Amino acid sequence: MENRKFVKDIPAEDMIVPVRAEGRIARALDSDIFYSWRTSPVTVVATFVALALILMAVFAPLIAPYNPFNPASLNLMDGFTPPASTGAFTDNYFLMGADNQGRDVLSTIMYGSRVSLFVGILATLFAMTLGVSLGLVAGYNGGTIDAVIMRITDIQLSFPAILIALLIFGIARGLIPPSQQESMAVWVLILAIGLSNWAQFARTVRGATMVERQKDYVSAARIMGVHPILILLRHVLPNVLGPVLVIGTISLALAIIEEATLSFLGVGVPPTQPSLGTLIRIGQQFLFSGEWWILFFPAVTLIALALSVNLLGDWLRDALNPKLR
Predict the structure, then answer these.
(1) CA distance 232 to 228
(2) What local confidence, expressed as pLDDT, does residue 322 receive?
(3) In 15, 147, 207, 291, which residue has its Cα 20 to 30 A from 1's Cα atom?
(4) ∠ CA 313-319-325 to the nearest 5 degrees?
């Protein structure tokens, strides 16, 4: 009996068992989501393609063969150099060829992807924030507020997003002084794309919020006198984030394509900050004269980026749906 130790006799510091990072990693590897990911070859390939393109864009200043926007490093005599060739008047090697200004197409794709991803990610975050906020307010309050927000949503969903973005872009450019239009073009583009894509988030979150507000934990919070804003942020929002993440992933691909479309039409980013859409517009001018690579490689990059993100969104939708497990 003398050798027995009870819990109260054990020092407190000896009872603390640290949570090791290895245990967290092991639990993550054993989770249903990781199992769903690694058993889907299409999703694995899409993940690596998306990561490769994103890393290529993020580290473009470090890994790009040349700086395509430095006039001192350009030689117009290298223009229209075919892929896997050396410039006629320089020793520059162009893996994907050179465009009409002698710029390395591979380097322009790396730098152009930075602009496309920057605009697409920020526009999606803006649309998500606006749509989720309006959806929570509409679904929780109901009544006149719900009717007004949903009618605005219905009106916006009845028009193509590209037309709404064009309208917003034109109005915003008209309100900005001419001297600041070029410097503000990227932020105007983010605003236009974000305002054209918030409706889907609002409609989805509104439906999920209407279901959650009828549950006991929301009623208990109301009885306790918790402020409605705290109820929405602490209790309702975490339970409606699943569909939001899926829509956000798919909306990112749509935002990238929408930015490329606007830039292709000449109303996107300025020529000093070309995106993938701008590169495609430039390459389209020389497609039928034989310089196919100026259009082909940026177009393939845009397709690969949008397709891989879309495939990840489809997988995420299935992985977060317990009925499909």
Answers:
(1) 6
(2) 56
(3) 15
(4) 150
**CA-based nearest residue to 106, from 114, 115, 94:** 94
Task: List strand residue ranges (DSSP E) for the chain, in order.
Answer: 85-86, 93-94
pLDDT digits (tens, 9 = 90+) for 258-268: 999 888 888 87
Cβ atoms of residues 15 and 281 within 8 Å: no
Predicted confidence band at 224 (pLDDT cuts at 50, 70, 90)? confident
Give the DSSP letter of residue 85: E
- C-beta pairs of 31-39 under 8 Å, 24+ apart in sequence: 32/319, 32/325, 33/319, 33/320, 36/315, 36/318, 36/319, 36/325, 37/315, 37/319
Q: Are 78 and 102 in contact (CB under 8 A)?
A: yes
Give the CB-side neighbour count of residue 26, counting CA atoms within 13 A.
5
- DSSP state, residue 87: -
pLDDT in tens, 8-49: 554 544 444 444 545 667 676 667 777 788 888 899 999 999
Of 103, 100, 101, the closest CA to residue 65 belongs to: 103
Q: Provide the pLDDT for residue 300.
A: 94
- Give the β-pairing of 93-94 and 85-86: antiparallel
Instruction: Find where tokens 């109301």 sit.
Output: 222
Q: Are 161 and 258 in contact (CB under 8 A)?
A: yes
* 8 A C-beta contact, residue 236 and residue 212: yes
Residue ranges per structural domain of the chain: 109-324
**pTM attached to this predicted model:** 0.85
Fold adopted by 109-324: MetI-like fold (1.10.3720)
3-state class of 93 per DSSP?
Answer: strand
Asked if 319 contacts 304 with a C-beta cutoff of 8 angstroms, the reply is no
